[in-house]
Design a protein that fits this description.
Elements (H helix, E strand, L loop, with lengths): L2 E6 L7 H16 L3 E6 L5 H12 L5 H25 L4 E4 L6 E3 L8 E4 L2 H8 L3 E5 L2 E3 L5 E3 L5 H12 L3 E6 L20 E3 H9 L7 H10 L2 E6 L7 E4 L12 E5 L2 E10 L4 H11 L4 E8 L4 E9 L3 H15 L1 E7 L2 E7 L9 H11 L4 E7 L2 E7 L3 H11 L13
Parallel strand pairs: 1-2, 1-9, 2-6, 3-6, 9-11, 10-12
Antiparallel strand pairs: 4-5, 7-8, 11-12, 13-18, 14-16, 14-17, 15-16, 18-20, 19-20
Helix pairs in contact: 1-3, 2-3, 5-7, 6-7, 8-9, 10-11
The chain binds adenosine-5'-diphosphate (ADP), aspartic acid and magnesium ion.
Length: 412
């Protein structure tokens, strides 16, 4: 019997009626002859509420306790959904991350899955149950509860699909697929039929909150096709899958803007072998993820090294830099928080020219100043003033005609 993994996000389980609807979808798949595993998020905005509750008591809550608290949101949903299924006459059983041996590292708040036992799920499936697993949470080697980072239930679901050998993971959410950009920021965005793992990975890491980035990494590595679709109807959504030749013809498939960033520049750093390595080893040791690294030589002895971090990591990053500052002999540290990043992504960039020109022209025509530029073979990103971010995203979407289906867009 084929295993189906269905993940329901917060808005799709926000109240009793929605939990019943999600349960009904799982039951339908079960009645069609599948073994069904459901992964569920916390209801509605409950995780935000738990974060607010914690901050009311402690502005800097211990990370271990934070994970202990946040994991309770998902635990409520899974037990409620199991009750809803039982009320429909279907055997169902809910599990926490720990109960399905979702083993992670110990990086509280952004833990990475290392191993999934899953025997208990298989046994329960074979006994005819629908299994409902709490997303977003795991357990470290010492038995502490960990969480995978905001939006991490997607990753729990795709990782479980991989561990159980399910070829597809269905992600049920409040949009009916992946759009060329966030439809809340650019209402004319168009839905894609499919997108490659590599493009979606870039979009996710650049702020497209519709999927958690690590979920895409699991999908790509273990050949799980991810189907992002609406929990409100039966329409086909967007398939995230391996690249196929026709994707090359789409120069820019999506755009993003990201506002929760900070930029750090180390100015007048002694330019000797080992200094950059020292800085980033120190940041990694503090669990700070770094993006958009740019080093430029000022003269034969000095360099400027800049990079971005998530604003939530800024305090940890500042501390790490302070700790290593004397060692690297850095003249000054410059920090900007009023910054945002606007990016375009597309595998077709590998074989087409003119994309950078088109993007920079769109920004300059709209009087958006560029702070710095970084690229990969399938993306171009510009840091801009935070106040310009929305305007910049719209300008770039218009310039690349992201309001039209990919086949109808003019090439740059
Ligand atoms: P869930 O709670 O189901 O996990 P999320 O809020 O995490 O849902 O993700 C869905 C939201 O992602 C949408 O409501 C949409 O505003 C946002 N989003 C951002 N970028 C995109 C995109 N490129 N395509 C579709 N939705 C996007
Ligand atoms: N409940 C968690 C969050 O709000 C995880 C998730 O929804 O995927 O971030
Ligand atoms: Mg989500």
């Amino acid at each position: 019997m084929a295993i189906v993994v269905q993940k329901f996000g917060g808005t799709s389980v926000a109240d009793a009626e929605k939990i019943r609807r999600a349960a009904g979808r799982a039951l339908k798949a079960h009645n069609e002859g599948h073994q069904v595993v459901v992964v569920a998020s916390a209801r509605g905005k409950q995780t935000d509420q738990l974060v607010a509750d914690a901050l009311e008591l402690n502005p800097n809550p211990p990370k271990r306790e934070m994970d202990m608290l946040l994991s309770t949101g998902e635990q409520q949903t899974v037990s409620l959904m199991a009750m809803a299924l039982e009320a429909m006459g279907q055997k169902a059983i809910s599990f926490t991350g720990q109960q399905v041996q979702m083993v992670t590292d110990a990086a509280h708040g952004k833990a990475r899955i290392q191993n999934i036992g899953a025997e208990r799920i298989r046994e329960s499936l074979d006994a005819g149950h629908i299994c409902i697993v709490a997303g977003f949470q795991g357990v470290d080697d010492e038995g502490n509860i960990t969480t995978l980072g905001r939006g991490g239930s997607d990753t729990s679901a795709v990782a479980l699909a991989a561990a159980l050998g399910a070829g597809t993971c269905e992600i049920y959410t409040d949009v009916d697929g992946i759009y060329s950009t966030d439809p809340r920021k650019y209402p004319n965005a168009v839905k894609m039929e499919q997108i490659s793992y590599d493009e979606m990975l870039e979009l996710a890491s650049l702020g497209a909150g519709v999927m958690h980035g690590r979920a895409i990494e699991f999908g790509k590595k273990y050949d799980v096709t991810i189907h992002v679709r609406s929990s409100m109807d039966d329409s086909t959504g967007t398939l995230i899958t391996h690249e196929v030749p026709q994707m090359e013809g789409i120069v820019v498939s999506g755009a993003t803007s990201q506002k929760d960033l900070a930029k750090i520049a180390l100015i007048g750093l002694t330019n000797t072998p080992g200094n950059a390595a020292g800085v980033f080893a120190h940041l990694a040791g503090s669990n700070v993820s770094v993006n958009d690294i740019i080093q430029t030589e000022v003269n034969s002895e000095k360099a400027t090294l800049s990079f971005t971090v998530a604003r939530s990591d800024l305090d940890a990053a500042k501390q790490a830099i302070e700790d290593i500052r004397k060692q690297i002999d850095c003249e000054s540290v410059f920090i900007r928080e009023d910054i945002a990043e606007v990016s375009v992504v597309g595998v077709g960039m590998r074989s087409h020219c003119g994309v950078a020109e088109n993007m920079f022209k769109a920004l300059s025509t709209n009087k958006v100043n560029i702070d710095s530029i970084t690229t990969s073979e399938i993306r171009i990103s510009c840091l801009v003033d935070l106040a310009d971010a929305d305007r910049a995203l719209i300008a770039v979407c218009d310039a690349f005609e992201l309001d039209k289906p990919a086949t109808q867009r003019a090439q740059p």
